[in-house]
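Researcher: Next entry in the queue.
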Amino acid sequence: MVDNTSSVAGSAGDHASDTLSVAVLGTGIMGAAMARNLARAGLDVRVWNRTRAKAEPLAADGAHVTDTPAEAVDGADVVLTMLLDGDAVLDAVRQAAPALAAGALWLQTSTVGAERLAGLARFADEHGLRFVDAPVLGTKAPAEKGELTILAAGPNDVRDRAAQVFDVIGRTTRWVGEDGASGSASRLKLVINSWVLTVINGTGETLALARGLGVDPQDFLDAIAGGSLDLPYLRMKSELIRSGNYPASFTVSAARKDTRLILEAARDAGVRMDLGEAAAERFRRAEAQGHGEEDGAAAYFASFSG
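Model: Structure for this entry, 306 residues:
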């Protein structure tokens, strides 16, 4: 594994004069924040989203809103995909295929899993694209601040060009391989997300147990404050649960999708994931209860019937 970590704070302005043309396919929670930061940094940004209304607000930041993926990528130096899953990504780039320029750089930032990544890499090869697998760490707030962590795998000769985008949307880029098709970045993302989802579900179950036993959640949080059991992420998710307000930064449905990818990869590797199986069931129940588009912390409701 290549382990080169670079801090890139403050470098976005260095690239703004390059007028790199970037097509952003997918303007949901994460994609919209990325596109907005790129446009504000002075890059030529074209955006597409399956539901155009979600992309329209980006026009106020200087992005050109398009009706089709092909229109978005026409003449683009870089194509950035940020969609729900591998199937959605492949569908979008297939629609874009007639207008894709050979040699364009494709930054694949979605969480797609190693298995589906292979199909995306084949598509890139067939269309002469330079492919970088670059799933990101971070949710809505870091994305809006341009403070994501990018886990990237791709050839050395495209890294300077990729940095013109990564330096704007992220705080840190960690290159973990030289072949985007190898899956090294996507596998690392699944390992990290396994921990994230464990914390989300652990927080929900703990606060549900506190409610069931008549324990004030604040007493729990005070008891662990500042110690080795305390976590900032626990605090964040606890606050959502206690407030009863679940603005989405990482939805229940997206968490369920990522859990499925983790379990698929684990089975292929011969690894038993008992906690992962339980997490999948909790997200399924919460989704069935109508919480799919709420933050993943709403899996808390899976602890209760109805």
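Model: The chain has two domains: 4-180, 188-301.
Researcher: Noted, moving on.
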